[in-house]
Amino acid sequence: MKKRFRPLPLKSIFRFNRIVFLAILFISNLSLIGQTTKVFTKEIEVTEDVTVESNLPSSFGLKMNGTITTNNTKDHYALHGRSNEIRVNIIKDLNIETWERNFVKQETRITVRTGSEVEDSALLEEFKLDLKVGADKRIVVDCNLNMDAFHMKNHIFMDDDCYVKLSNGKRISINFIEIETKLYIPKSTNLSVKGNNYAIIRLGDLLGDLRLDLEYTEVYGTKITRLFANLENCYNVIFQEVASANISAVNSFIKIENIGELTIGESGLVKNGTTSAFTPSKANSALTKYKVGTVGLLMVMNSDNDSFYANEVGYMDVKKTNYTKFDIGRLNVTAIISAKNCDFNFALVAKDFTNIEVENSLCDLHLHMEDSTGYQLQLNRNEYIEFTNRDSSLQLLSNDDNIELYQKGTDNQKGKINITCSRCKLLLDGEHL
Amino acid sequence: MKEFENYLKANKQKLEIDQIDESIWQGIASQIAPTKKRSYKKLTCLFIALLVLLLGSFIFYKISVKTETLENRVIAQFDLGQYNFVQQVNYKRQKLAKETIPADQLERVQILLQQLAFMDEQFHDYTDYIEKNGYQKFIGEQILNFYTSKIELLDKIQDEIEKINYYEEKIQTSTPKVNIQI
Predict the structure, then answer these.
(1) Residue A251: its chain B contacts at CB < 8 A?
(2) Which residue in A47, A232, A310, B126 could disulfide with A215, CB within 3.0 to 4.6 Å?
């Protein structure tokens, strides 16, 4: 007798699948059952002259032995154990909000899972949020409270064995931990953030000083009064407005919309509290791209092979630089430059400029003078200069022993350009008077 | 059978070979190259040297293959193959390796070459990270930035060399040219 195949009605298939789906969902969420969350909050009153010192959410030690997989995304850094169960989840963002109140507040949310709810609570009791003003008016913030390290080991015959090590040396078994920290600081306070792991700092307006010693970290800020930054491999450091900045950076990208005073490469790159020997050259700033909207005063102290782009520069003082490329949309007043192998492009030199002095070699110089600009140009042909003059109003006044003097306009026009160069190409653009 | 035996006995003297002159043997012996005693020590040394050479080549091959495959794996994993980073870097490096500049300019170019060495070290940071933590999107973004910076640096070195040589040709100094040793 032939058995006739009868398909199941769609309804029952759907019902069955729904049950299976719910069962899978339930099993997959079993791991989340039994975890306990506690928000640690502490707020202390401070005076204006305090300095808040913070590490990063990823700053605690991770000691691993066995099968470990990680999931590092923009937002979090998670560690999985042998059975692919998540053991540590670090929320990478460190949000630092600034407010008008004279209080520093730390808010740290810790979620743990041990064997039971009682154990969870007991563990959470061990975490201490220590926030107090020290004798030197410093407030040290630990984003991970008193957790020194997270240990995990496993092997083929053993599932994950995890514990947290606290700063007092105590070890507590744990199955899972997640940490997230948020800071609130007065706008007027000074802030210092140090860290060398993948993290993102988001910062509000700050009237005090901001000091950053960072590696592989992104920073997004709004308005900052004074910035001191040591940066290595920080691909996005972005601020809207900075009154004054002193930056030493390697292989980084820095963007500031408006800046009053910018000093590049004044001090040696600091790494782990000491000046780093591991830099690509002897300069304090190297391989870094600076992109600036408007800068009042630009000072380059020691830089090798950076790139500097600015829409508008008021005053420019370049003390020492090699192979750096400068692209300036508009120069307003002065540029005093001592460089080697550095190309300069001034897309526009304002009519009211007063002085441009360049000492350079093996370079391309381009000066495009604003319409109706009168000026005097002294050209010291040290070795070899290819001078292309596209300003037909510029007249040669004298030519004496490799020094050529040109003038455009009348004697009383104040703008002076003095170029001492060897092996250069000089291109001068300008309109008729 | 007996007849044959008798025949042999009768013709014994005829069948025996005549005594060969000793000088013939000496002549043959002199023409043959004297057999040297094979040195056991030398053979061992040769064998060890060969073994070391083979082992060295094997290790070098393994390391280069490992580095190359890791780099290729990294590129493939993060879908960076479309940018032809490795090919671009190799091409630009090969081009630079052929370049020569006046000897007195070599020291200045070292600034850029040191930066290139620094960048190479950086890539080891990423591969170490990947070996420890596995492939992740985040590190892929870092690698994309890394390659962009490295290619820009290689282009910069090329530009600077062309610039140096351009002026050298214009001024026509007699400074001997040297390879940039990349």
Answers:
(1) 118-119, 122, 149
(2) A232
Q: How confident is the model at residue B19, as a pLDDT?
A: 65
User: What secondary structure does DSSP assign to A248-312, as a single string?
Assistant: EEES-EEEEEEEEEEEES-SPPEETTEE-S--SSSSSEES-EEEEEEEEEEEE-SEES-EEEEEE
Contact predicate A362/A423, CB 8 Å: yes
CA distance B80 to B9: 98
CA distance A334 to chain B (A): 27
CB atoms within 10 A of CB A390: 12
Q: Which residues of A touch B160 (CB under 8 A)?
A: 323, 341, 362
List, in order, residues 6 or more apart from A280 with CB less than 8 Å away: A250, A251, A286, A287, A304, B114, B115, B117, B118, B119
The residues with which A37 forms a beta bridge, in sequence order, are: A111
pLDDT at residue A418, as a whole number: 96
pLDDT tens column, A140-166: 999 999 999 999 988 888 889 999 999
Q: What is the pLDDT of residue B85?
A: 84
In order, the DSSP letters of A201-217 are EEE--EEEEEEEEEESE
Rg of the Cα trace of chain B? 36
Rounded CA separation A303/A254 (Å): 15
Sign of the Cα pseudo-torsion (A247, A251, A256, A261, in order): positive
Rg of chain A's alpha carbons, rounded to an integer?
30
Please say if the pLDDT value at position B23 is more than 50: yes
List % helix, strand, coil for chain A (3-state, nearest 5): 5, 60, 30
Closest CA to A219 of A40, B80, A228: A228
C-alpha–C-alpha distance, residues A210 and B166, integer Å: 46
For residue A195, give both structure tokens.
């860290």
Q: In angstroms, rounded to a whole number, what is the distance separating the alpha carbons of residues A281 and A286? A: 7
pTM: 0.79
Q: Which residues of B touch A235 (CB under 8 A)?
A: 142, 145
Identify whether the C-beta of residue A146 lies closer than 8 Å to the C-beta of residue A155.
Answer: no
DSSP string computed for A43-64: EEE--TT-EEEE--TT-SEEEE
Quote ipTM for the complex: 0.78
DSSP A107-157: EEEEEEE-SSHHHHHHHHHH------B-TTSEEEE-TTTTEEEEEEEEETT
Q: Name the residue among A73, A305, A384 with its Cβ closest to that of B111.
A: A305
Per residue, what are the HEC states of chain B? CHHHHHHHHHCHHHHCCCCCCHHHHHHHHHHCCCCCCCCHHHHHHHHHHHHHHHHHHHHHHHHHHHHHHHHHHHHHHCCCHHHCHHHHHHHHHHHHHCCEEEHHHHHHHHHHHHHHHHHHHHHHHHHHHHHHHCCCHHHHHHHHHHHHHHHHHHHHHHHHHHHHHHHHHHHCCCCCEEECCC
> Is B136 at the interface with chain A, CB within 8 A?
yes
